[in-house]
Amino acid sequence: MSVRALWIISHEKGENVSLRFSRRFATVEHRAKSLAASSYIPVPEERTVLQLLLTELGLSDSDKSYVALRDDCLHRQRSPALELHVDSPAKGILWPVLAISQGPLILACLPLVDAPAEPRPPLASLLSVSQGLTLLAGLQTFLLGSGGKPDNEGLASRLLMLPSVLLQVCPLGTPLDVPLLAAPATPTVPTPAGNQKQPAWKTGLHRGRAVVNVALIETVRSMQYGNRSRQDLWDVYGTVTCKCEVEGVLPNVTVTLTLPSIGSPLQDILVHPCVTSLDSSILTASSVDSYDGSAFSGPYKFPFSPPLEPFRLCSYTSQVPVPPILGSYQLKEEENQLRVSVTLKLHESVKNSFEYCEAHLPFFNRDQMGVVDMKVSSGQLDVAKEKNLLVWGLGQKFPKSREVTMEGKISFSGPAPGPTDPLCTELTAYIKLYFKVPDMTLSGCCVDQHSVQVYSSAKPRIVTSRELLSKEYFIWNSTGTAPVSSGQMML
Asked: 101-118 as b/e, with b when 16 or more CB fall inside 10 Å?
């Protein structure tokens, strides 16, 4: 449900009538025009709406006992969903115009009806009517308070707050909530200061302690075959996510990414639309270009004016010389048994401190596991026979040698067939690695806490973090036939 227009009118028995507030939502009006097509009736100017609404409510022409537009027997008034007969410039009927009146105020809105104009749908079937009335009732309580008759100063103060309140409860014409009941006369929502206009995409303003949180996450994918005739593949994809709780209409924040002196330049950089300016050299690097010493290697500065919600500031790819964990996986068939041999080696450039690290070894398209006789040099092995799955928990550290092994035999003599999968047939099998390394990225990219600049009246607390995650990290059985990779692994 959305609202095409909203009006707030003050009156005293039809005298001293004035339009205290009005708001039109252009995006909703565009949808109304598309839905109605040739039967579209535009919302007239405020003075015309005011006159038609007062006439329909019987608050104008007090000296006339009969007004044809309102009192004709063919006219059926359906309060609070009114009809406004528009004569010019576009002739037609605006319906349903919802209006409620209490004390000195009339609150009215024109909801968007997502239904054919003819035949007119019953009011009870229109969700937009009930939601529109809920919005008006909430605004009425917000403006008048629990007593129903605020003083002129209190009403004026709340009317000044209304633009900011609508940005929160009805952004871009779509009601999400109602204002707090019996709201105080003093502003609870900060209003834009000076001549700076609050953008429509920003649904409110932050008020309170200033905090800027920047998280850098790199994910690595790998396809390792253990076969000289097939080249191993891997790629790295990074994202920078921000949550900025900073006061001001359009605060300025700058986040800087840095690389080590021997790091590969970031490539395929994409930025959020809120980034206000960017060095053109940052965007010229592409993964299809050959790398040379002239490529831009940072620092990468991203100035932006943040939205309230968390958002992805930028993403990138990076070329790294080796994957973080190198593996070897071999299976040999012996009667109704498989001999398993696994070696995993942590590269010396990777921090030996994991939040978690697990190796999953599924065995599809076979009977259920019977006897499992396996030994591991480090970590703990769990057997899920009903799933034909071995889970090798490597813990939070590799041993000093940075190498772990698994050896043993598995028989498949269970009472029922195990899980099937078209990917793994006969000796084709794989190991899938799941790991997370905190406070590290494979490219070496980082966000220096002291390089985050915030131009705001309050000094914010800066929180930065980075981590390395695995995604689709496979080590294929080198004695089987692994599926052919698509070749383009970039996310």
From this structure: bebbbbbbbbbbbeeebe
First to last CA, the chain: 36
Residue 89: give its domain's CATH number: 3.30.450.60
**Which amino acid makes up residue 191?**
T
Per-residue model confidence as pLDDT tens digits over 90-111: 678 898 999 998 878 899 999 9
Check which CATH number belongs to the domain holding 374 and give it: 2.60.40.1170
Q: Are 346 and 402 in contact (CB under 8 A)?
A: yes
**Residue 488 falls within a domain, yes or no?**
no
Residue 42 domain flag: yes
Q: Torsion angle, CA of 331/334/335/337, rounded to 10 degrees?
A: -50
Number of domains observed in the structure of the chain = 3
How far, in Å, CA of 133 to CA of 398, rounded?
Answer: 63
In residues, how long is the chain? 491
The contacts of residue 202 (CB under 8 Å, 6+ apart) are: 167, 249, 307, 308
| Confidence at residue 193, expressed as pLDDT on a 0 to 100 scale | 47
Task: Record the tokens describing residue 92, joined without a space.
Answer: 């037609």
Overall pTM > 0.70: no
225 and 287 both lie in a single domain: yes
| Cβ atoms of 173 and 28 closer than 8 Å | yes
Same domain, 278 and 350: no
Q: How many Å apart are CA 110 and CA 95, to the nearest integer?
A: 7
Q: Do 87 and 20 belong to one domain?
A: yes
Say if 196 falls within a structural domain: no
Return the percentage of the chain with pLDDT > 70, whole number: 84
